[in-house]
Amino acid sequence: MGRVEGKVAFITGAARGQGRSHAVRLAEEGASIIAVDICHDVDLIAMPLATREDLEETVREVEAIGGRIVAREADVRDSAQLEAALADGIAAFGPPDIVVTSAGVVPFVPFPTMSEATWRTTIDVNLTGVYRTVKAALPSMVEAGKGGSIVFISSGIVFRGGGLVVDYASSKAGVVGLMRSLALELGPHGIRVNTIFPTNVLTKMLDNEVFGAVVSNAVNEGRPFESREQRVEAMRGMLAARNMIPLGWIEPKDISEGVLFLASDEARYITSESLRIDLGFGGK
Amino acid sequence: MGSTVATGRVAGKVAFITGAARGQGRSHAVKLASEGADIIALDICEDLPFAHSPHATWADMEETVRLVEAAGGRIVARKADVRSREQIDAVLAEGLEAFGKIDVVIANAAAIAYKNVLDITVEEFEATLDVNLHGVFNTVQTPVRHMIERNEGGSIILISSGIAYKATPAPDYSAAKTALITFARALANELGPNRIRVNTIEPGYVLTPALDNDKYGERTAELLGREPFASREEHRAAMWDQFKPRNMLPVGWVEPEAISNAVLWLASDESRYVTAEELKVDAGFADKSA
Which residues of B touch A275 (CB under 8 A)? Predict the structure, then answer.
């Protein structure tokens, strides 16, 4: 008997990284998965986003452990796409009990040269995208009347200043306000809303040359790194100093364990919680 | 039990729990034991003159022992006062003798005077800090030294309170419980390199003997400005109605097991990189206005 046996989880940004890890972990504990991801790059976001092949790999991994999954390409900036994906998932498994908003982007642009279009893109994906995701899932959850668990993925950056992330930090802090008020409104329905604040996780969001340039400017006098290994080592040193437990980053599965706990009935009385999984980053 | 290989989410770990004779502490002991841990338990097992409610008894502790063993765990349970380092260390020595190590510490023992700020004496205020703050310092220091020496990390869980985030007529208790949060942050920062994690849990209302007793019934009647309650049931119903509007979820309180679920998660390796976290298990109490 799994810890989320028989539940249905709707997960955005599920093609790779943390989102994929959540899908596999929840499936391992008995949930059926409705997975979406944009599966293509986005204008003004320099780093490569997930691909269709990535989403197919998530499907393979979920099915390999005996899980059930409906995976669709959908952009969290487009409610119609989210609703269509959900409709397919609901037809297969019934309404979601769990919603995990993992889709996110970070352009890493200095504030003085950041365009309003870049700012709007980040907010549109990371904050309004969360609004749209909940909005799409909520009617079927309320109608089912079984309560539910909504888990937002924010960021430890909400608690500390960071370079080149004014848009990202603002979007992720906005999610906290959304959580508190939504938790209040949805409490009477038995729907819980909580937020996880990860420290750095070495997914493609950090393990790329765009963030590599940020690291280079901070610790390598702007000189490019000669190899990925050199870049990753420099990143490790830079990031470890910010955490109480002196590691550079944690694994996607560490975030998934928090998602699983909040998604399960073990957390049935936890709502409006800000759960940091962050090596002590937020408190340091 | 000696030959059995423990299974579960904290299999093979040893947890030290204070205030374990009843209520939340007992619930944590049983939950962790049911997931494979061995338990070192202490409780004062006597009343404190300043405290608003009767404390646990040795008979309560015997019931904890029975429940832990029924759940498949081993337990060393002793009568001891968290205000006394000597008493704590004596229990820990026996626990280490029996189980060889300490992986998890749960500082749960607490007491509360429950008086308004103008009514409480400085002696009562200090008495509360003695148990709830100095007692926690006493509880964690020896295990931390053991954990550093053993060099396999550890998980320290301090039971704070949702009262840390809300105005309540308990200045002594709220001061002590809020101090635990910054104490935990400092400790987490200091012990991070040793992979010793330090976290707090902030429970909302939990129906345990600390609330569900006649003396607190008198306090509730006083706070509500009404006649004394005719029965324990009447008091419970009044508390449910009093507390429910303060929570986001439509409940008056949560069960001890809800707190134990969070204890289990923080005690387990599932949360291996969680430190300096304030984990609220409170039905939305802290974040609700009014």
Answer: 277, 279
